Amino acid sequence: DFVVEGVDQTRGWFYTLMVLATALFDKPAFKNLVCNGLVLASDGKKMSKRLKNYPDPSLVISKYGADALRLYLINSPVVRADNLAFQEAGVFAVVKDVFLPWYNAYRFLVQNVIRLEVEVGTKFKMGAVDLDKASNVLDRWIAASSRNLTQYVRQEMGAYRLYTVVPFLVKFIDNLTNIYVRYNRKRLKGGKGTEDCMYALSSLCAVLINVCKCMAPFTPFLTEHMYQNLRDAIPEAEALPSVHFCDVPPVVPEHPGDARIRQSVARMQAVIELGRKIRERGLKPIKTPLRKLVVVHPDTEFLSDVQGELLEYVTSELNVREVECCADPLKYATLRAEPDFQALGKRLGPAMKAVCTEVKAMSSEAVLAMQEAGFVEVAGLRLEASDIKVKRDYRTPEGMNASEVDADSDGDVLAVLDLRVDSELTSAGLAREVVNRFQKLRKKAGVTPLDPVEFFYDTSLPSSSSEGTATTAAPANAAAKASSKQQQQQQQQQSNAAETQGAAGTSGRTAESEGGLPALVRVHAQYLQESLGGPLLPASCRPPGAVVLATEWVNVGSEDDGSTLKFTAVLSTPGVTVDQSAVCAACGGDTQLAEAVTVYMHARDPAKLQAQAASGGGTIKATVDGKAVQLSLGKHIFPSAAARALGQRSS
After folding, report:
1. Contact at 8 Å (CB) between 214 and 169?
2. How far, in Å, CA of 639 to CA of 641, rounded?
3. 518-528 pLDDT per residue, tens
């Protein structure tokens, strides 16, 4: 069926085989020929043992792995019968740009499957949901892309076009990690409910298994490592012992709408990348919210998708409040045409000069007419729309200047971004930056998604020696060592702060108008809670029994506009919180007994306290100094500061 040899054998072995087969059997010696180029040293010379102008292959494999070396060679000019100047940096790039993102997507799946299994108490299986009934647009997109991948790999491998298969697979992995996983992190973490999380995790698991099967011939070791874990999610009858026992996934017919959803998501990604370029050019970091993005494209179906299912991803990734769609390409730009010299040069020959002149002279209206018709008559010749490149020259809207609005285009879609920033947007940007600092501190402290943690801030200035990050561990019985007076003072502060936190409203006031971080937390309480996974509370709310995991002095905002916020970020474990006045009432006004009960409760483990309350119908009987006190969870005591703050906010 096929033979393989180096390009240097073109006039030797290949030619001899062809001559002998023709003379003896009157037919070709082979149906397909795979011809490899030569691997040269980094300077373009032949590799030589005498010159030692190449890295030791065993050391390269030891450092980067055999799979990285294989993929580097397979995804190079060598498989197209061209020469390759070997660069060790290229092998490293495969690890950095392909393997690490791919493996991180796999690891993120495993982490969240473990989290889900803990939450629901059952084993994760892909068959628990029907992926053909998925409603989320990115679930349907990644499924459509996976079907297209399988069809493409089988088609190209069947034709022995190895040089087209690996780039397509690498691009698919890039889309999987940078679009599906990146944009769906909240869903994969269960932020939109258990059922939606099951669809997201099942979609990701199914696609990773499909990719492992397609990539197994090229990266046999990495795919086997992933498959051995992923196969636990496959029904037992279908889970073969090794990925190398599996066939290449069969071709699945495209579902209705597959082509449209692939094109719409590709264009959405183009819009997002254009928006990032505009932000970078205008010195507007992604943490700063902007008012409006305008997407300009003549395809009304795509614009409908942007305003519908894709809207949340565009607004989230570009951090804009509003997305406007425009089907009139002349409203924000003028169009001009340029001939595709590479495509037309050889075909037109001497006529190219006249065609070039007429094409460049086309008006914007003529370009639109050509795009609609699919062709144009130029200098007596018919040119297809694909023979002409359409350029969009952005035109600043009336009443605005270049510093207030900017645009960019990839030749297909035009993105226009309003760069004006007001105090409300500045406040929202600060809230986003605060979240970012807490997430970084969480990572530094080694806190996993399964670890319970609470978030606090302290606006008092630290001593110079305490600036930076410090990880500490306090004894669990620290509350028992605190003096009664200190406890009472802290409880009073906590009560006041929690009431203030609970009164956080939606008045729409900006942080600047209120002043400081406490005001910012009140205004953006819901966003902070959703982003962090719990409310952000003043340090005075931290229970005495909570163990501090990490602290860091944080400085966010800009000195230029006076929006700087300085505070100490604190991560701690949950600790039992007590409503001092409610406990005192439950003790019949006996302040000494209430004080003793408070100290005892602060020393309790929150998880065990919740379990005891659950078995007691929500109440706990505490006996201190021979006196019994009946306490209710959620009224007198709380398993964490967050539980108390959220309870007061809801009431």
Report:
1. yes
2. 7
3. 999 999 999 99
